[in-house]
C-alpha cells in the first residue's frame, strides 16, 4: 500500500504542512514552495477552503498536492474528488484504510507505538507518519523503533523545526519530515512568497541519511 507514498516522500526532505485560509493565496503559495524545491505539499482539511485550495494548487506544474488531517472515509472521498494525489492521517482506522483502498487514494497513515506500527504493517503500510513527533519523544523515540521494526519508514511531523529536522533526517528509518514552519500564516496571508521560497529552498537543501 505504501509504494506511492514512499516515492512521494523520497522527492524532498521536507513536506510543508499547509493550513490555507484564503483561497486567493493557494496557487501562489504552491508555486513558491515548488519553485523553492519542495514539490510535495500537504494541505490540511482544517479550513473552509482546503478542498478548493487543493484544486487550485494542483494546477501548479511540478507539484504533488495531497490532503492532510484526513480522519474519515468522507474526508478521503472529498479530498480525492478535489484532486488530492495522496492523503495523510494522524492515525489509522479500518474505515479509513477501506475507503482509501476503495477509491485508490494513496494513504500515509500515522503510527507511534510499536503496536500501532505493527498494525499498520499488517494492513500493508510500511511508510508511516510519526505524529506528534516531538511530543512523543522525538528523534530518540523514532530511532528506537528502527531496532525491532527496521523495514518501516517514517515521516515525522509535529514540532519539527529547522533546528531539529537534521536529527530526524539523519535516522535510517526517516525518509522525510513534515512541518508547518515553511508556509507560515503571516507570510501566506501577506503573499510574501519570497520569504516562503527562501525557507523552502533551505529545507530542500537538508541532507538525508
Ligand atoms: C500536522 O498537522 O501534521 C502537524 O500538526 C504539523 O505540526 P507542526 O505545526 O508542529 O509543524
UniProtKB/TrEMBL annotation:
Q: Which InterPro entries match?
A: Aldlse_KDPG_KHG (IPR000887), Aldolase_TIM (IPR013785), KDPG/KHG_AS_1 (IPR031337), KDPG/KHG_AS_2 (IPR031338)
The catalytic activity of this protein is classed by the Enzyme Commission as: 4.1.2.14
Protein name in UniProt? 2-dehydro-3-deoxy-phosphogluconate aldolase
Which proteins does it associate with, and in what oligomeric form? Homotrimer.
SUPFAM superfamilies (alphabetical): Aldolase
Alphabetized Pfam families for the sequence? Aldolase
Q: Which UniProt keywords apply?
A: Carbohydrate metabolism, Lyase, Schiff base
Q: Which GO terms describe its molecular function?
A: 2-dehydro-3-deoxy-phosphogluconate aldolase activity
* Substrates-to-products reaction catalysed: 2-dehydro-3-deoxy-6-phospho-D-gluconate = D-glyceraldehyde 3-phosphate + pyruvate
Species of the source:
Paracoccus alcaliphilus
UniProt enzyme class = lyase
Superkingdom of the source species: Bacteria
Amino acid at each position: 500500500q505504501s509504494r506511492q507514498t514512499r516515492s512521494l516522500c523520497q522527492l524532498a526532505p521536507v513536506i510543508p504542512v499547509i493550513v490555507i485560509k484564503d483561497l486567493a493565496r493557494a496557487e501562489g503559495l504552491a508555486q513558491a514552495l515548488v519553485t523553492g524545491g519542495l514539490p510535495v505539499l500537504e494541505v490540511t482539511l482544517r479550513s473552509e477552503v482546503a478542498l478548493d485550495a487543493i484544486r487550485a494548487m494542483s494546477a501548479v506544474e511540478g507539484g504533488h498536492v495531497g490532503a492532510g488531517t484526513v480522519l474519515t472515509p468522507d474526508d478521503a472521498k472529498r479530498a480525492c474528488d478535489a484532486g488530492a494525489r495522496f492523503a495523510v492521517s494522524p492515525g489509522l482506522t479500518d474505515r479509513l484504510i477501506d475507503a482509501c483502498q476503495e477509491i485508490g487514494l494513496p494513504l500515509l497513515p500515522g503510527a507511534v507505538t510499536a503496536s500501532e506500527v505493527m498494525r499498520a504493517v499488517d494492513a500493508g503500510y510500511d511508510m508511516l507518519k510519526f505524529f506528534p513527533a516531538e511530543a512523543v519523544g522525538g528523534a530518540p523515540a523514532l530511532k528506537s523503533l528502527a531496532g525491532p521494526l527496521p523495514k518501516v519508514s517514517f515521516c515525522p511531523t509535529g514540532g519539527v523545526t529547522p533546528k531539529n529536522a537534521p536529527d530526524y533526517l539523519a535516522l535510517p528509518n526517516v525518509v522525510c519530515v513534515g512541518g508547518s514552519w515553511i508556509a507560515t500564516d503571516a507570510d501566506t496571508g501577506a503573499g510574501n512568497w519570497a520569504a516562503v521560497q527562501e525557507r523552502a529552498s533551505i529545507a530542500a537543501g537538508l541532507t538525508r541519511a
